[in-house]
């Protein structure tokens, strides 16, 4: 057993008591019920998608509404929702969003072999109720929740050397909402061309099939794409946390802000590539590379909203069991502090200024993870238990003991122990 598991991390890995589990479930249920009480049709963002699908069923073009920003394949995915009355969506959507986020958290824990009944699992699930991006995701009913579940699942499959299955998960998520496109670079880094082909083929085939069925599919290119390139409209721009949107609000010229954002994103991609080239064949290699790619995209893409952070946050939180991980540094947690709803921050408390603290969160997490990717962690050398006793097991750079490896690196397939 790792010596590290006898300390604070060992406490997190032990089973949670039933009162703690009940308390975590209670706060999550309370968060869902609050959204149910405040919402009338399953959230504002989900309503845009449902309205587009209903327009399609009525013979119109879903892209007549400029706020429908997804690929044509998402229209077909939204049809089941469009057939439900609003009073049903009011309950189904927040429950579904919470379920997808919790599913992503479970997959994140399994990447590192953490049991779903552990204190870490239960406290992490309950803590989501106090995290502003999670509450906003519930309230909006945004389809980002699909990516929140898909990225950890894809990472888990990659760790288990099931690359093509991971490509299928990414492709299905992109077909619903094209958020995980930057993750495809991981397949490029690894030279997994079959996985990349599957990730591209699924949304492409779905979009072509949907385009043949919907009226005026060309509106996607003449209306939706220009609308996205402009950063949507002034209303959405107030909540956009990308550097290209936040810096101009501070007086930086737009051209300079965009160039700076692209440069920062390029540095992030380089850090991800450098982390992948450090072939230590551990789960941390996959998690850090994949999340660094996504954070780099969030810094430059428009729009970039606060709930996007949940896509990368769950696997990073689960990595706290690994010595030297980004979640072991105080700066990681400092970056998340502004997202605690009970704290009123001077000058950024109004909703119209929330993007500033959201941008600070993205930049802080990206900086911490970039340093972790670019600078190797030195192996941990543990002292002997006593002058005459045997030495404790030394730690590898990523805190994992040696395991059987496949010829291409990473673990052999099979579920990790609890």
Summarize the structure.
The chain has helices at 8-13, 18-38, 44-57, 72-82, 86-111, 119-127, 132-140, 144-159, 163-176, 184-190, 193-213, 219-229, 234-237, 243-249, 254-277, 283-300, 310-318, 330-336, 354-374. The chain has 418 residues and is mainly α.
Draw up the topology in text:
Elements: H1 8-13, H2 18-38, H3 44-57, H4 72-82, H5 86-111, H6 119-127, H7 132-140, H8 144-159, H9 163-176, H10 184-190, H11 193-213, H12 219-229, H13 234-237, H14 243-249, H15 254-277, H16 283-300, H17 310-318, H18 330-336, H19 354-374
Task: Tell me about this structure.
It is a single chain. The protein is mainly alpha-helical and 418 residues long. The chain has one domain. It is built from 19 helices and no strands. The longest helix is centred in the N-terminal third of the chain and has 26 residues. It is globular. The C terminus is likely disordered. GO terms for molecular function: hexosyltransferase activity. It is a multi-pass membrane protein. This is DUF2029 domain-containing protein. It is found in: Cell membrane. Belongs to the glycosyltransferase 87 family.
Order of helices and strands: HHHHHHHHHHHHHHHHHHH
End-to-end C-alpha gap: 13 Å
Biggest sheet overview: none
Percent of residues in β-strands? under 5%
On the 0-100 scale, what is the average pLDDT? Answer: 85
Low-confidence stretches: 380-409, 411-418
> Helix content range of the residues, please?
55-70%
- Which geometry do the CA atoms define? globular
Radius of gyration: 22 Å
- Number of helical stretches of at least 4 residues: 19
